Amino acid sequence: HCTERTFVAIKPDGVHRGLIGRTIARLEDKGYSLVALKLLKPSRTLAESHYESLRSKPFFGDLVSFITSGPVCAMVWEGKDVIGQVRKLIGNTDPLTCAPGTIRGDFGIDIGRNIIHGSDSISSAEREIQLWFHSEELVDWNPSLHEWVYE
Ligand code: DAT
Ligand code: MG
């Protein structure tokens, strides 16, 4: 029934700080399902295309250096309204403006160390999933919790 998917990445700061388990737990706790997961050091090409809409920004160079420093924990998550709900769970771009209870609000301070990425729309989710994953890396499975999460 619910096949919306989003791309989520724990950035190098989140990986170094040991936040992989806790961020994954929040998405699992909500009821979403993991479709793909890998740890990698992104190439410059990958990082630049991921953030291509920000190419003209003054912070673009620092952003690409930061992301390529790795490791990044790249994931695809699935479920009803997952794109918008994950953005809410993550919080605003600037952690200092995030509500407590959000991932960035609870774990971050600076905008350039905001721990986690989540796609912002259906079109960017599709683009980012294709950019970071081969189709055979996306696992087709039926989580047994579905009937207890969805009515
Ligand atoms: P988000 O990650 O919330 O989708 P975005 O797509 O506008 O935010 O920007 C991508 C990343 O770029 C963001 O997570 C951190 C960095 N960034 C954005 N605005 C910035 C700024 N004003 N100064 C420094 N880094 C910034
Ligand atoms: Mg964004």
From TrEMBL:
> Does the record carry Repressor as a key word?
no
Query: What EC number(s) does this enzyme carry?
Result: 2.7.4.6
GO MF term (any one): nucleoside diphosphate kinase activity
Q: Which domain of life is it from?
A: Eukaryota
Q: Which GO terms describe its biological process?
A: CTP biosynthetic process; GTP biosynthetic process; UTP biosynthetic process
- Which ranges carry the Nucleoside diphosphate kinase-like domain? 3-140
Provide the alphabetized UniProt keywords. Answer: ATP-binding, Kinase, Nucleotide-binding, Transferase
What cofactor is this protein dependent on? Mg(2+)
Q: Catalytic residues?
A: H117 (pros-phosphohistidine intermediate)
Catalysis performed (reactions): a 2'-deoxyribonucleoside 5'-diphosphate + ATP = a 2'-deoxyribonucleoside 5'-triphosphate + ADP
Which amino acid positions bind ATP, per UniProt?
A: K11, F59, R87, T93, R104, N114
Which family would the database say this protein is a member of?
A: Belongs to the NDK family.
What's the protein here called?
A: Nucleoside diphosphate kinase
Which organism's genome codes for this protein?
Galdieria sulphuraria
Q: Which residues of the full protein are shown?
A: 54 to 204 of 208
